[in-house]
Amino acid sequence: MGRLTLEGIGKDYDGVEISRDIDLTIEDGEFVVFVGPSGCGKSTLLRMIAGLEDITRGEMCLNGERINEIPPQERDIGMVFQSYALYPHMSVAENMAFGLKLARTDKAEIRRRVDHAAGMLHLTELLERRPKDLSGGQRQRVAIGRTLVKEPAVFLFDEPLSNLDAALRVDMRVQIAELHRRLRATMIYVTHDQVEAMTLADRIVLLSRGRIAQVGAPLSLYHFPRTLEVAEFIGSPRINTLPVTVVDPGRQRTAVRLPSGDTLAVAVDGARLRAGDSATLGVRAEDFVAPDQAEVRLAARLMVAEKLGYETLAHLRLDGVTATLTQRLDGLTHLEDDQAVELGLAGERCHLFGPDGDACPRQVQIPGVSH
Ligand SMILES: Nc1ncnc2c1ncn2[C@@H]1O[C@H](COP(=O)(O)OP(=O)(O)OP(=O)(O)O)[C@@H](O)[C@H]1O
Question: Where does the signal peptide begin and end (predicted)?
């Protein structure tokens, strides 16, 4: 059982506030990913949960019991680090057993747990090898195995895949997801890679400047970002943005003037805005519509087409405006250099962010995705 509650958690280093007002409950069995730009305080928060950093403010509880002052080895929490630092002179089995030996666990019990973990992580054939005779991915699996044998209530992963090459990362990501599905243990995972966050998380905690910017299921953050910052962080390619002026704010639709001079009624509650406000329109690369279904059509020219096989990303320059946009197209779309393109906008497929960067609530339903 691993239910974690963080209430008003904050951290200062030398009087400087690094982390603040963190309120978060992580349910037993959940896979939660902390994500955010470099320096936003992800690792610091994880290390406070592990007990490797003091907590300056707030209260942290595991299964209802305060753990603020409990030393790391006495918390029922196991951590997998980015640098896996295995003991080179020990075999895989010895590396995995080491922590249990120190804790004077019974020999037969050690054997049982090492065998079980090795089975889960596909390491059974490698138990007698030394770390130098393993690939990067295998070493990372041993590092996970070292934590797995402790059978902690909560697993913490601090960017565990960042030392691996791209193909191995995908492979290990699938293995970690599989491990979570089988163990149903609480897992907290830190990464700055939004793809890792989107694919692994039950819930994403997006951190920004030491605070929580938004918490929610990956698709909620993608379709209903609360701020421009969240919208820009989640999703690749990055959401397209255009500066607009508010013309007619309303509860169901808010009309804005685009740089082209056209007016678009965006399906958002813009009641808190005023006519004349500067705002930002957001359109994801796949949210342009066919010109015959569009409420507004923008004239653009192709700058570069990135042909990725299953899709093509067309980077376009808008006519008469210094703005570039990216459109996601089918991988077989034929495009000529400098081709003229019409981009269709529909108010239901756009986001609107006020002058403060906060999103106006979208007035659309997306099946299976909660706001
Ligand atoms: N020991 C320390 N003393 C002073 N400041 C620190 C210390 N450790 C971290 N910080 C600062 O705290 C902030 C958050 O750091 P943290 O490592 O938690 O960020 P992060 O989101 O994990 O970043 P990254 O993705 O780059 O690892 C940074 O501004 C960092 O410089």
Answer: none
The rounded Å distance from CA 158 to ligand 1 centre is 13
Q: What are phi and psi of 7, to 5 degrees?
A: -125, 115
**138-161 pLDDT tens trace:** 898 999 999 999 999 999 999 888
- Of 194, 229, 264, the one marking the end of a domain is 229
**pLDDT tens, residue by residue, 332-341:** 999 998 999 9
Residue 227: other Cβ atoms inside 10 A: 18
Q: Is residue 221 part of a domain?
A: yes
Residue-wise pLDDT for 244-283, tens only, equals 999 999 999 999 999 999 999 999 999 999 999 999 999 9
Per residue in 162-181, pLDDT (tens digit) is 877 888 888 888 889 998 99
CA distances to 40, 143, 208, 282 from 227, rounded to whole Å, are 16, 37, 11, 11
CA distances from 72 to 49, 53, 195, 339 (A): 9, 9, 30, 60
Instruction: Tell me the C-alpha distance between 167 and 150, whole Å.
Output: 29
Residue 364 maps to a domain: no
**The whole model's pTM is what?**
0.91
Domain containing 202: what range?
A: 4-229
Does the Cβ of 37 fall within 6 Å of ligand 1?
no
Ligand 1 pocket check for 351: Cβ under 6 Å:
no
Whether 248 is covered by a domain: the verdict is yes
Q: Is the CB of 18 under 6 A from ligand 1?
A: yes
Question: How many whole angstroms from 19 Cα to the centroid of ligand 1?
Answer: 10
At 38, list the tokens.
């470099």
